[in-house]
Amino acid sequence: MTFKIYTRKGDDGKTALIGGDRVAKHHIRVESYGTVDELNSQVGLVRSFVKESIEEQFLSEIQNTLFTLGSYLASSPHSKMVLPEFDESDIDRMEVEIDRITSQLPELRNFILPGATQQGAHCHVARCVCRRAERLCVHLSDIEEIPEFVIRYLNRLSDYLFTLARFLDQKFGGREIPWIPKTKK
């Protein structure tokens, strides 16, 4: 028997959560894990620019962790399903990576405009998707219980992606352009 990708079960505008509950595809829980999935794809795009490097390996680990977060977000609150384990040390490791990369960068004195390189610009897009995922998860946590590590991880990941964007701009020959606000005359 051949596996089919389509089930037709979502044709009514609803989807099943882990645990069996069915919710509207626009439910905040679905928006949350869908945005984490979008983030995972964006991180994969960034990873494609840094082959055979420490950053590639770390981004791959991040993608695996994002699937873990997604499983928690895709679970109905009363699900009895055993979910993959989240390792709290992943947040600490992200801080270590941020510090490692920051030590190789010039001091940040201004906001910078994304776009110094294509690689860095894609990383900034991933950062923005990460912030959106974080906002959606905070909203979800106001309505239903989710593990607090989900929001902490996404918060730290956006910091990492910002730092990585600067690093990639430098690595690929870009020049940071500071934001210069217009002043009233």
What is the strand and helix layout of this fold?
Layout: E1 14-16, E2 22-24, H1 28-47, H2 54-73, H3 89-102, E3 112-113, H4 118-143, H5 148-171, E4 177-178
Helix pairs in contact: 1-2, 1-4, 3-5, 4-5
Would you kindly provide a written description of the structure presented here, covering whatever features stand out?
- The structure is a single chain.
- By secondary structure, the chain is mostly helical.
- The protein has a single domain, classed as Up-down Bundle (Hypothetical Protein Ta1238, Chain: A), CATH 1.20.1200.10.
- 56% of the residues lie in helices and 5% in strands.
- The chain has 5 helices and 4 strands; from the N terminus they run ββαααβααβ.
- It has helices at 28-47, 54-73, 89-102, 118-143, 148-171; strands at 14-16, 22-24, 112-113, 177-178.
- The strands form 2 sheets. The protein has a two-stranded antiparallel sheet with strand order 1-2. Strands 3-4 form a two-stranded antiparallel sheet.
- Strand 1 (14-16) and strand 2 form a beta hairpin.
- Helix 1 (28-47) packs antiparallel against helix 2, helix 1 (28-47) runs antiparallel to helix 4 and helix 4 packs antiparallel against helix 5.
- The longest helix is centred in the C-terminal third of the chain and has 26 residues, at 118-143.
- The radius of gyration is 19 Å and the shape is elongated.
- The model has no long low-confidence stretch (mean pLDDT 95).
